[in-house]
Amino acid sequence: MLPPGNILLLLLLPVAAAQVTPGSYSGCGPLPLPLLAGLVAADAVVSLLIVVVVFMCVSPRGRPTQEDGKVYINMPGRG
């Protein structure tokens, strides 16, 4: 359940939104092309970094190899 303060905020949100006149957003507008290109490039680099970190954490390393070709079901670390 939400605390009473959050419920009041949710109830007043439509009232506050109705007070905003269309087109009065200061600072919002088209971004310059170099800034937009930089943001897209930074997003791509961060996304690639996340993929690499997840791949490194998930990849099997340090696990012993199976030389005998058997599948050990109930032996942790063997299969």
From TrEMBL:
Stored Pfam families: DAP10 (PF07213)
Gene Ontology CC: membrane
Membrane topology: Single-pass type I membrane protein
TM stretches of this protein: 36-58
MF terms (GO), sorted A to Z: phosphatidylinositol 3-kinase binding; signaling receptor binding
Keywords: Disulfide bond, Glycoprotein, Membrane, Phosphoprotein, Signal, Transmembrane, Transmembrane helix
Xref: InterPro entries: HCST
One GO biological process term: regulation of immune response
Main location: membrane
Keyword GTP-binding (UniProt): no
Residues annotated as signal peptide: 1-18
Cellular compartments annotated: Membrane
Family according to the record: Belongs to the DAP10 family.
Protein name: Hematopoietic cell signal transducer
